[in-house]
# Entry
Amino acid sequence: MPTPRFLTLDDVAETLNVSWSQAYALVRRKELIAIQIGGRGQWRVEVDELERFIQQKYAEARAGSVPPEPAAEAGAPAEASEQRA
# Structure
């Protein structure tokens, strides 16, 4: 059997080890390109597109351009004020 060209959002979520809603959020924000088949939210992601997304995230991590976690953002101003003191 040939390798499938498209993945469901369930497949994407499993591959990335995230929830379905997190995978869907990536599609909504256009971080991960997907196509919609039919009218009832049947999203499909090409295997090559998922691989491109993963490689892009690794490149961002290597470049240090990964945004901070929300909890870290809350602590950022305090750290900045500590440095000024």
About this structure: Residues 29 and 64 are 21 Å apart (CA to CA). Strands lie at 6-8, 35-37, 42-46. Residues 47-63 form the longest helix (17 residues). The longest strand covers residues 42-46.
